[in-house]
Design brief:
Elements: H1 2-25, H2 28-41, E1 45-55, E2 58-68, E3 74-80, E4 88-91, E5 98-99, H3 120-130, E6 132-139, E7 142-149, E8 152-158, E9 164-171, E10 174-186
Antiparallel strand pairs: 1-2, 1-10, 2-3, 3-4, 4-5, 6-7, 7-8, 8-9, 9-10
Length: 190
């Protein structure tokens, strides 16, 4: 009788552990945390961003090439519009400041922020690495995660392989910047 009870106890514990493991594998919050862990371990990423931004009553369609560390620091190069293509800037993920060599772009800032549109990629990466994961869930077979830092929210959609494909930045619930993310690559460090 004791052997049978011991066997049943071991069987029940095994089933509980299997159920717990299966639940974690499909947990959207865990997927968002796994992305964060990989971003920090690889010390950043690179990607192209096709973006729409509204600044001071004017709309901008931008295409940017970004190479950023996990803090949002790095370089952003304008690919389009053609009139400013080729301009590169160093971005500071902490302050959102851009530094150009001898050029200054008059793109303005996003409404109610001090953030220039070309500085947003650094802010996105910083959110993925540091901001509070406010929510995570699946929608249409993809992961949708929201990162919050006070009134600032970064909503990001990830593809099935776990890389970002779309992001938007909102302030006080109003979308100020939205972008498609293409050619995402991890930094080549470990």
């Amino acid at each position: 009788m004791r052997r049978r009870n011991l066997f049943l106890a071991v069987l029940m514990m095994s089933l509980c552990l299997l159920c717990a493991c299966a639940g974690k594998a499909n947990d959207p919050l865990q997927a968002a945390m796994d992305f964060r862990a990989k971003l920090l371990a690889r010390e950043g990423c690179g990607f192209e961003l096709e973006a729409l931004a509204d600044t001071d009553g004017q709309s901008w369609a931008l295409r940017l090439a970004c190479a950023l560390d996990a803090g949002g620091n790095g370089t952003v190069r304008v690919l389009a519009p053609e009139s400013i293509a080729g301009i590169s800037a160093v971005t500071d993920g902490e302050t959102g400041r851009l530094t150009y060599e001898d050029l200054a772009l008059g793109l303005g800032t996003l409404p109610d922020t001090e953030l220039a549109p070309a500085a947003v990629p650094g802010r996105l990466v910083r959110a993925w690495a540091r901001d509070w994961i406010a929510s995570a869930g699946t929608e249409d077979g993809t992961l949708l995660a929201s990162y919050e830092d006070g009134a600032l929210t970064v909503r990001t959609r990830f593809d099935a392989s776990g890389v970002p494909i779309r992001a938007e930045l909102a302030l006080d619930g109003r979308t100020r910047f939205q972008a498609e993310i293409r050619n995402f690559q991890w930094n080549t460090s470990p």
